[in-house]
Design goal:
The structure is a homodimer. By secondary structure, chain A is mostly helical. Chain A folds into three domains: about 130 residues, MgtE N-terminal domain-like (MgtE N-terminal fold, Alpha Horseshoe); about 110 residues, Roll (CBS-domain), CATH 3.10.580; about 180 residues, Tetracycline Repressor, domain 2 (Orthogonal Bundle), CATH 1.10.357.20. In chain A, about 65% of the residues lie in helices and about 5% in strands. The first copy, chain A, is built from 22 helices and six strands. In chain A, the strands form two sheets. Chain A has a three-stranded mixed beta sheet. The interface between A and B is large, with 117 and 116 residues.
């Protein structure tokens, strides 16, 4: 599918070069805005305005929304005031806000000077909400009905107003801007009596969010209740906008990406990978690397303080990476599982005892199996196959006992820390592998050397 | 919000105990099926059938769909044939399939004996598709129109048929079951002429999937094109069903969870964390732990073969954890970023040169900063503050040079391996931290000891 798309892309560019504009336009008319935008993204800069002007007004605006910010900026800078106004008039408010957020200040001023006053007001309103709040994701364009309307009047109203609304399928019943109920187009179409009043038809048990609700909570509500749109109200329960399901999907992907980045020991990125500059990638990655490098001073100190033990039993050193690695892996397995469950709302802090009990049993199972296999492996491979005569039964036992204790400790630390983070209002994902690995590294070394001191002639 | 919900839950259970059935029923009527299902989940077993029988037919079925499989099974076993039939008649086909998939064989037989023949046929059809294909996620209930119908006739048809369909908002125009076009209810309502034919109104540039399209691809199409539903066709382009956006959201969450689990070094789980048994958790976690533990034999061998070098310069051992840790973290930063971008379809294999160039520059930047900071830290903290006189300028230089080379290598390996995995049709997420860490561990030790041998008097 992707390959076929690349062929189409090449054919289109060729037509543009050969000035076959009529044919090119015909083909563009059959394409989706998203796919046309992808073609623009691979065009040379000077060709972008040329091809854009081939698109009819509505398709041009729909394509504009889907384009990369660089391409959008290039086009806006080349537009006459009239062209700019034409594109802006076709945009939904929330799309206009997304564009404004990506543009430099002088382009933003030009955009705001060309949109109609009502839209300017809405854009400015939405821009005031915190970046990851429901207010920032909402659109102010929705169909509102009054409770005293009939089904027939409502359908007429949708027909008159619907063309400018992002979704018409969920309508909001308001009085003095207060949200009273919800009616879907399905309810309206399937109503047995056209004269029935909206008051009798509407669902009054409404789930809504406020402008300041966090986007993660918004996404969770969509996922739980299968909404197509969710009303956004202010503190006085007055309707100010709606969030639609397509935005909720974007939020979900953003949140999952953010969790994955934090788990991988990075700060969350603003842009997609290919659009991030080397400098941005560096800035997101270096803080954790530095922090974790410096905190490795502890593991270094532990090793240094057991230097004489290591010198007396040189074979011990060879197992340090295996112990620390297995500890780290065990810990990150638990932390990653718990963090994801917290993100999806499947776990809350009150579940801590259940989580602990589950992890203790799982970790003992894992630890015992690992220790037994490790014992056999060290004896058969390291001593007999590789012929390392320094390894004694006792050393083998020390390594495997340390392994068992490390796995159990790592799994408990890995499961508990993210839950504690949640309670003290930190992002649980920050507690993932890199952080937990550092703690587990130090713990596993301590356990190892303590067993060694107790059991070996050192 | 969650706390308030727990209070409601307690109040409801109390009413049930005090046999205030009328009030209880009144309250249940105002609640969402999802929330009622949550109440059932915390009820004692013997109370479940009692409370379920308080619900009116339609709400009972909607709640049933949202319940945990254990509760569903309990109810089905307690139902009379008549009660079972009543619930089943209210279900959408795809929900019925979800339930059937979770039930033991004897319960499945009972369900299939009670559903009407047409639904039985649909259930059996959907059950035949592979678990993660579009066919398994689709429903066979959708509104189909014929091209020669008028707008008015179409709306009438929706009104007659819509009550049994999961979504009415996207209608599918078919002839001899072949998919010709798509018409939305918005198009129908906003059409200027009621006598206009569907043929003239429908969108013919259709994006569809086949029954065997992978669920990840389905989710990507929803995210890219903002669909509410996507048609599923067979190999002959005949319409067989639709996937709706709420299912696409479930797929997205499932896919993200799977990636996160693979990145954390686990096999993907079947159940949510709290519903997974200790045995399941153990089975998902132990394979990678064992594999990585055994593969640590290599790092052990490298250390053993440089034993004499370590004995000559004991201070070298203390920096092994820091070097391996920083290498592992650098590698997993890159791999996690690349894996996520591959999952979201932002990257393809053809981008490999761009990825490489980006990672080389980023890793050199990170490596140089880390090396410089590390050099100062070792001298100021480890030597002067902690007074470790074994550390010389040369040892410090060896550690920091090895660090620089390790970081660059780790980032390149971390970015390239997932892309290679994608090309040879492996899940890129398998190449994440645990796997890459093992490779990077071995590489960083080799680099470290080679620098040590070359620069120190060993």
């Amino acid at each position: 599918m992707t390959e076929r798309f690349e062929l189409v892309e090449k054919a289109l560019v060729k037509m543009l070069e050969e000035k076959k504009y009529a044919t090119l336009r015909e083909i563009l008319l059959t394409m989706n805005p998203q796919d046309i935008a992808a073609v623009f993204n691979s065009l040379q800069e000077h060709r972008i305005p040329l091809m854009f002007r081939l698109l009819p007004k509505e398709l041009a605006a729909e394509t504009f929304v889907e384009m990369e910010p660089d391409d959008q900026e290039l086009l806006i800078r080349g537009f006459s005031d009239n062209e700019l106004k034409e594109v802006l008039d076709e945009l939904y408010v929330d799309d206009a806000v997304d564009i404004v957020e990506e543009m430099p200040a002088n382009v933003v001023r030009r955009i705001l000077s060309q949109v109609d006053p009502e839209m300017r007001k809405s854009i400015n309103q939405i821009l005031r909400y915190p970046e990851s709040s429901a207010g920032a994701w909402m659109t102010t364009e929705y169909v509102s009905l009054r409770p005293e309307m009939t089904v027939e009047e409502s359908i007429l109203r949708i027909r008159r107003q619907g063309v400018d609304k992002e979704t018409i399928y969920t309508c909001y019943v308001t009085k003095d801007r207060t949200l009273l109920g919800i009616v879907t187009v399905k309810d309206l179409l399937l109503a047995e009596d056209d004269e029935m009043s909206i008051r009798d038809l509407m669902e009054t048990d409404i789930i809504s969010v406020t402008t300041h609700t966090d986007q993660e909570e918004v996404a969770r509500l969509f996922s739980k209740y299968d909404f197509l749109a969710l009303p956004v109200v202010d503190k006085e329960n007055r309707m100010v906008g709606i969030v639609t399901v397509d935005d909720a999907i974007d939020v979900m992907e953003e949140e999952a990406t953010e969790d994955i980045e934090l788990m991988g020991g990075m700060l969350p990125s603003e842009n997609t990978y290919l659009r991030s500059s080397v400098w941005e990638l560096f800035k997101n990655r270096i803080p954790w690397l530095l922090l974790l490098m410096v905190s490795a001073t502890f593991t270094g100190m532990i090793i240094t303080s057991f230097e004489s033990a290591l010198a007396a039993q040189v074979a011990l050193t060879a197992f340090i990476p295996m112990l620390m690695g297995t500890g780290g892996n065990s810990g990150s397995q638990s932390s990653v599982t718990v963090i994801r469950a917290l993100s999806l709302g499947e776990l809350k802090f009150a579940d801590l005892p259940r989580v602990l009990w589950k992890e203790i049993r799982t970790s003992v199972l894992c630890g015992v199996v690992l220790a037994v296999v490790c014992f056999g492996k060290i004896w058969l491979v390291d001593r007999m196959l590789l012929g390392n005569e320094d390894i004694t039964w006792l050393i083998d036992a020390v390594v495997c006992l340390a392994l068992l204790v490390t796995v159990v400790t790592a799994k408990i630390v890995g499961a508990v820390l993210p839950m504690v983070a949640k309670v003290i209002k930190l992002d649980p994902a920050v507690m993932a592998s890199p952080f937990i690995t550092t703690i587990v590294d130090a713990l596993s070394l301590l356990v190892y050397f303590l067993f060694a001191k107790a059991m070996l002639p050192i």
